[in-house]
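Anyone up for a design puzzle?
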């Protein structure tokens, strides 16, 4: 490695804290030629206190290579058209290499190679990088240096910005000209010295070869290395770089992102194709698959030197070469490719739009990078003087990142969701009891958005109106102002506020289906609504941020105007077939039973109650089982079962509503963001219901109709017939035969004594006191025992017999007396609709049991009330 030559003064670097910005600065002291102190300053994130001569790099440095010394002389035999390829070597147009100072030809094969074998390109600089520069520029720099020395002005300066981490030996410095590291859009970033952003989301990347020796990669990673470009070799038909295989293995073992580069010695399309084929062979031999590469495979194109050969000078030739090299890599599945070169070469030999479009890594050790990338991802090799723990000597350092912010999640890949124009709550997917709120309910322009517990107020309601481009304007109902990105300036943490509607993209939003709730994406680009820091506490700001897949960026919409009959019994009707409703098979009591479609039969298994638990969020409870409707296992996959389960307070049992018209709506699960769906739209009896991504089809549309469950129907029935049987004492004779009446066996006083049919005998065991409760239900109390007529065990099974029992207010002791057209009475059980008091087998013998039986209108179920 070459040392840094020609520094007349002293460079003092002392890390010191800068509490106001939370980083570290570097104190530098510049000395004039006479050794006196000229000035001092601080460089922090590129904001440097430098003036005059301090703004330059050393006047003794080679052009484009601030850490390489100028030669003392340049031989007159070296023409200005030659190219300096190190601090002491130049190559002529014919490919001959000469010593810069003496003009002598260089014949060492390690430097110039042989006619059949190219040299290691780094041998001529002992492994140090060098950006080729014209001899004309070298002579001009020497002349300027001599002039400054003669005038006694400051001859050089060098300064370094802060190291990012004081606890390691890594010095991620600025370039020698002052390009620097900082932050942008909440990400690490690299800037030109003037403050122009080169790349955000930038990583510290080094490039290495055998000249760095055996690297301690664990230490290098700990020192802040975030990426590595590994030299795999040079030319074609040559061996691996002697450290390449180990460097690849170590990066894979330690999880250090890496890419590959090949130094090219190709001079036409066939030799470039050979190099491409050789790279593929080496990559496969090294066990490097396309998926292993976090960074590209780079084709390193430079002005090489090789005995008996000369590099191309035409961009058209280079275009053919690059295409041939690319074709070999791409045919093998390696699509992440790029060109590497330095600015001067890109401005001359490689000066074509086709080549520049493929250029993703550029070397330049200046204050700015005078190359315009056409790719968003880009790398700037800004210095060859990186000092990294675990690596002996110096190493090239680069900044790799993006020109435009690239989110970890590309929200555009998610399908656009279309919801009907209407008024909605915007609830958080992470906590559906909270949603987007206008701070303090303010109505002024500029009031910001925040997360707040649901309160059903208009400040939490928004009118969504679809635009022709598929986006939506979102207008707060309370203020009449639009959801707006402040200043139209999208970016991480950009303020989301309300503002008077103005039709700009800052007020347009797309709804994207994440598969687990919705992203609300700004029309300004790949930016979405985000709950700051993922905090779910009231008052947390809602801002703009790059999509990252977290629940803090997912939301649920629920209609604020849905006509859902809350806390009332309803049936849920299929939009495909109005005769089919959501049904609980067999009125099952088991958790996990999957719901289905079935013809309406008025049973409790087909009845549900909606309970509102948040802004437009409901629990749905089956009337037969008392269990909640949910998505099985809170699954987010299409096809998950819609089932019932015990109440558990999870979002899997919470449902939002999207209203499509006055009579149909979709039920959106708050844990999955998917809706209740009829598989394949096949609306038939017993079709099992599933969870599926919303698509607006009839298979996902439902209607609601208020209905009465069994108890409600029985209550109404009882009240309707409240006057059919008067209070008082009565004897109940069967219509089957005169003189056969209800009787307590043996006049027993005991609980459980049988109630049966027996010949009338005038005893109190056959007399029953009639009374009604507030709902109209009848209780029959035996005068002799004081016990009441009771369905044994409260069973609703056909054939259950009657007994007497202490009054307990249960439905097993309640009846509905209905007067028939002929004046007889039918006694309906309050336990279940359709069951009545019946004489077993329609027999009339003494001791015949009386039982529960399905209503059939026969004489065995008719009774005559006689005064007791």
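Challenge accepted. My sequence:
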């Amino acid at each position: 490695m070459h040392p840094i030559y020609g520094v007349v003064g002293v460079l003092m670097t002392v890390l010191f804290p800068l509490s106001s910005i939370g980083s570290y600065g570097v104190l530098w002291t510049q000395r004039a030629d006479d050794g006196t102190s000229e000035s001092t300053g601080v460089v922090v994130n590129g904001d440097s206190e430098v003036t005059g001569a301090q703004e330059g790099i050393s006047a003794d440095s080679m052009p484009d290579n601030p850490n390489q010394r100028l030669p003392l002389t340049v031989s007159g035999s070296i023409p200005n058209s030659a190219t300096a390829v190190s601090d002491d070597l130049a190559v002529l147009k014919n490919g001959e290499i000469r010593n810069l100072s003496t003009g002598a030809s260089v014949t060492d094969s390690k430097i110039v190679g042989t006619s059949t074998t190219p040299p290691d390109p780094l041998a001529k600089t002992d492994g140090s990088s060098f950006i080729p520069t014209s001899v004309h520029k070298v002579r001009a720099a020497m002349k300027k240096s001599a002039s400054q020395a003669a005038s006694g002005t400051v001859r050089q300066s060098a300064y370094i910005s802060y190291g990012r981490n004081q606890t390691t030996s890594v010095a991620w410095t600025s370039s020698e000209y002052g390009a620097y590291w900082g932050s942008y859009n909440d990400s690490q970033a690299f800037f030109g010295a003037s403050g122009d952003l080169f790349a955000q989301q930038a990583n510290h990347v080094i490039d290495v070869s055998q000249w760095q020796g055996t690297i301690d990669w664990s230490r290098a990673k700990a020192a802040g290395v975030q990426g590595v470009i590994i030299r795999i070799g040079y030319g074609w038909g040559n061996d691996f770089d002697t450290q390449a295989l180990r460097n690849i293995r170590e990066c894979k073992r330690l999880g250090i992102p890496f890419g590959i580069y090949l130094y090219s010695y190709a001079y036409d399309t066939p030799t470039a194709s050979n190099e491409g084929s050789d790279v593929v062979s080496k990559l496969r031999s090294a066990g490097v698959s396309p998926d292993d590469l976090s960074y590209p495979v780079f084709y390193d194109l430079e002005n090489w030197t090789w005995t008996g050969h000369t590099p191309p000078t035409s961009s058209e030739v280079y275009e053919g070469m690059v295409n041939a090299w690319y074709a070999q890599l791409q045919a093998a599945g390696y699509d992440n490719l790029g060109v590497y070169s330095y600015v001067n070469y890109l401005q001359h030999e490689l000066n074509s739009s086709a080549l520049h479009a493929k250029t993703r890594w550029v070397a330049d050790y200046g204050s700015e990078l005078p190359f315009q990338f056409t790719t968003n991802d880009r790398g700037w090799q800004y210095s060859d003087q990186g000092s990294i723990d675990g690596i002996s000597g110096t190493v090239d350092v680069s900044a790799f990142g993006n020109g435009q912010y690239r989110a970890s999640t590309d929200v555009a890949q998610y399908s656009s969701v279309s919801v009907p124009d209407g008024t909605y709550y915007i609830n958080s997917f992470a906590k559906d009891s909270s949603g987007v709120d206008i701070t303090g309910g303010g109505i002024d322009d500029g009031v910001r958005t925040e997360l707040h517990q649901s309160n059903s107020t208009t400040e939490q309601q928004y009118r969504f109106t679809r635009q022709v481009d598929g986006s939506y304007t979102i207008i707060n109902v309370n203020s009449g102002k639009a959801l707006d990105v402040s200043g139209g300036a999208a970016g991480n943490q950009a303020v989301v506020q309300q503002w008077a509607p103005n039709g700009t993209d800052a007020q347009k939003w797309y709804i994207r289906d994440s598969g687990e709730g919705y992203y609300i994406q700004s029309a300004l680009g790949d930016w979405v609504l985000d709950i700051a820091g993922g905090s779910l506490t009231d008052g947390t700001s809602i801002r703009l941020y790059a999509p990252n897949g977290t629940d803090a960026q997912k939301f649920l919409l629920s209609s604020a105007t849905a006509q859902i009959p809350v806390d009332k019994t309803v049936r849920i009707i299929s939009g495909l077939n109005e005769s089919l409703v959501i049904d609980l098979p067999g009125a099952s009591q088991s958790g996990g039973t999957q719901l289905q479609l079935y013809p309406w039969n008025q049973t409790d298994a087909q009845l549900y109650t909606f309970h509102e638990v948040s802004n437009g969020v409901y629990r749905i409870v089956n009337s037969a089982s008392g269990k909640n409707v949910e998505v099985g296992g809170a699954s987010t996959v299409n096809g998950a079962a819609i089932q019932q389960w015990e109440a558990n307070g999870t979002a899997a049992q919470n449902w939002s509503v999207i209203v499509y018209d006055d009579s149909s709506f979709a039920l959106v699960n708050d844990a999955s963001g998917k809706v209740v769906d009829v598989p394949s739209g096949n609306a038939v009896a017993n079709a099992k219901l599933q969870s599926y991504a919303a698509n607006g089809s009839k298979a996902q549309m439902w209607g609601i109709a208020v209905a009465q469950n069994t108890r409600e129907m029985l209550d109404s029935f009882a009240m309707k017939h409240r006057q059919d049987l008067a209070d008082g004492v009565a004897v109940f004779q069967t219509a089957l035969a005169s003189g056969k009446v209800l009787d307590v066996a043996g006049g027993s006083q005991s609980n459980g004594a049988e109630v049966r049919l027996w010949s009338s005998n005038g005893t109190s065991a056959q007399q029953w006191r009639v009374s009604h409760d507030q709902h109209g239900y009848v209780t029959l109390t035996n005068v002799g025992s004081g016990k009441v007529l009771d369905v044994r065990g409260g069973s609703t099974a056909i054939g259950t017999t009657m007994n007497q029992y202490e009054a307990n207010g249960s439905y097993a002791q309640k009846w509905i007396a209905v007067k028939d057209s002929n004046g007889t009475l039918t006694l309906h059980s309050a336990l279940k609709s359709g069951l009545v008091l019946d004489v077993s087998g329609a027999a009339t013998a003494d001791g015949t049991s009386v039982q529960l039986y399905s209503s059939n209108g026969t004489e065995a179920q008719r009774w005559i009330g006689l005064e007791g």
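A detail worth pointing out: The chain has nine helices and 56 strands.
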